[in-house]
Amino acid sequence: MTAVDRRKNSGSRGNRTGNLGQVTIQTPDSPPSATQVPSERTFHGDTVTDEYAWLAEKEDPRTTAYLEAENTWTETATAHLAGLRDTIFNEIKGRTLETDLSVPSRKGGYWYYTRTVEGKQYGIHCRVAVQPGRTDPPSTTDQPGEQVLLDGNELAAGHDFFALGTFDVSVDGNLLAYSTDHTGDERFTLRIKDLRTGELYPDEVPDTSYGTAWSSDGSALFYVTVDEAWRPHRIWRHKLGRPSSEDVIVYEEADERFWVGVGLTRSEKFIVIDSGSKITSEVRVLSADAPESEPVVIAPREQGVEYSIEHHGHRFLILHNRGAEDFAVSWTSADAPGEWVELIPHEPGTRLESIDAFARHIVISQRRDGLTGLRVITDGSTDSYEMEFPEPLYAVGLSGNPEYDTATVRIGYTSMITPSSVFDVDLTTRSMVLRKQKPVLGGYDPADYEQFREWATAPDGTRVPISIVARRGVRERGPAPLLLYGYGSYEASIDPYFSVARLSLLDRGVVYAIAHIRGGGEMGRRWYEQGKILTKRNTFTDFVACAQSLSRDGWTTPELLVARGASAGGLLMGAVANLAPEAFAGIVAEVPFVDPLTSILDPSLPLTVTEWEEWGNPLESAEVYAYMKGYSPYENVAKLKYPRLLVMAGLNDTRVLYHEPAKWVARLRAVAPDGDYLLKTEMGAGHSGPSGRYDSWREEAFVLSWVLDVLHLA
């Protein structure tokens, strides 16, 4: 059970009103109302009044009272959906093989895998020794000689939230570095376990971030910490068996736009320290055999140039955008990094996204025409081939490939009707072996569903792709209820994918669609550039164009259309609610970034300075300030007839602070009081919501039941 009070209020039917400082709670016939306490901000000669700024005071009991009152109201307002929530939860659970095993990955003398057990929330991380002469991975959950490395259920015991930050086995397989978070704020305590004895070392480092790297001999562990704005800014070296007070700073990033990370190359020869802003990169390396040596810069940072490296024999492969909008690949000497030699030239329209080096092959992950793909190059050759896949819509990528000296790689493949599948591919013969397809219990047949690619036309004439999946025959029967998902920021792509939970919508006749809008990366780097900073409105108008196109072309109607988005996609939801409320019957906004201008004006907040290259810097630019103010959902709440809104937040969220959605709902209630707005805050979780799989399924069932209610299918 999470820290959220899930009271049913079955015995509270009176008109009871109580005053708790800054919030008036009216239960159960009307929602809570937050008191307005005007607070002013002035930038570029513009003064703005924020009546709900007080909600940013997390430790103030009045804030807690308001959030809990909203949770109580949401529980009351959705009480009639309790049966449907249980039904959908049981559908998700019933379609899931609860006791299961991931496809094991070989590393050294072991197969590593994660298994789940029916009734348990978290995965159990294990390994078994490779048997002589056996090349195929184990395929059953009962493995003789299994060694449990970490049991997430044991680590989570006594806590409402649990997440792993790093899980890193040393080169010799003897040590495990792992870190845990029990609040959802993404700050982890780092520990080291001796896998030979099962004992924990006394070494313990609090408040670390993601990412670790072992030296070759396991004597040193590199890790990351954050500054006061929660920006990963320091790389440390920890000596095994020594107190953390003796740890040494290996690299500190002074530029507040840049984050740092650390990792070990697949070849296990180099520790890599990445430093990057949204648009600029700088990479340092040091020998894993000499952990106390000074890091060497591959290429000094150059504003607007992004690059990453992979070690490949005598060279470092460099994926970069220097003079290459959609990226190219070069290489430089591993012994003396310097001049870049072109390996794969820039090809406009083919976005090279990542590069993976193996002893005798290079695999490029790319996208073209809105679809992902994989290109293979044999070492010593300029020839390449692209893997082919049978479906018109799909998503593919490398998955779980820790071994460097191999000619076989593992890939993950899915589509909107094909469950997640794992293949081993022989890079020489090009043969593919299906190792596992995610089981879907209950008689799932992909032939019962069909997927489509449609195109909408944005106001500026740009064609925007839409991926659609529906139960077979739904399209022919005319307008249907439809859920439209969107994101559109950070060059992140929402590719076609399979979802067990989504079947609960499809089997009730709901169509599911993904709008691949600008600001994302689906159509290459230019697609991203046309949806950021002073072109950000394209993200919102693209989404509205997709919604209107789906209605115009007979897929649905505005009365049968619900939109959904999370985080920066939650900003999208807030913006389109102001821009075209008539296009939607309902909107789900999860951890929504709906007060962007206020946050981006405050450089002390987590992420703010690093985000200026995504949204612009309104502190320095009056133009950016005015532009952001023009689309900020919170600043543009008006007396409109808004769609029904379900807003989700996490009290310990460090990416989108809880008070943004809380303030938004409070202002909506005051300015457009006739609307139907629900706010649900997870009081013991962060950006990703509940951590356990059963809790996550219940959260999804809550959202889907609300969607079905809006669509008159509850």
UniProtKB/TrEMBL annotation:
<dbReference type="InterPro" id="IPR051543">
    <property type="entry name" value="Serine_Peptidase_S9A"/>
</dbReference>
<keyword id="KW-0645">Protease</keyword>
<comment type="similarity">
    <text>Belongs to the peptidase S9A family.</text>
</comment>
<keyword id="KW-0378">Hydrolase</keyword>
<feature type="compositionally biased region" description="Polar residues">
    <location>
        <begin position="11"/>
        <end position="39"/>
    </location>
</feature>
<dbReference type="InterPro" id="IPR002470">
    <property type="entry name" value="Peptidase_S9A"/>
</dbReference>
<dbReference type="Pfam" id="PF02897">
    <property type="entry name" value="Peptidase_S9_N"/>
</dbReference>
<dbReference type="Pfam" id="PF00326">
    <property type="entry name" value="Peptidase_S9"/>
</dbReference>
<dbReference type="GO" id="GO:0006508">
    <property type="term" value="P:proteolysis"/>
</dbReference>
<feature type="domain" description="Peptidase S9A N-terminal">
    <location>
        <begin position="32"/>
        <end position="437"/>
    </location>
</feature>
<dbReference type="GO" id="GO:0004252">
    <property type="term" value="F:serine-type endopeptidase activity"/>
</dbReference>
<protein>
    <submittedName>
        <fullName>Oligopeptidase B</fullName>
    </submittedName>
</protein>
<dbReference type="InterPro" id="IPR001375">
    <property type="entry name" value="Peptidase_S9_cat"/>
</dbReference>
<feature type="region of interest" description="Disordered">
    <location>
        <begin position="1"/>
        <end position="40"/>
    </location>
</feature>
<feature type="domain" description="Peptidase S9 prolyl oligopeptidase catalytic">
    <location>
        <begin position="497"/>
        <end position="711"/>
    </location>
</feature>
<keyword id="KW-0720">Serine protease</keyword>
<dbReference type="InterPro" id="IPR023302">
    <property type="entry name" value="Pept_S9A_N"/>
</dbReference>
<dbReference type="InterPro" id="IPR029058">
    <property type="entry name" value="AB_hydrolase_fold"/>
</dbReference>
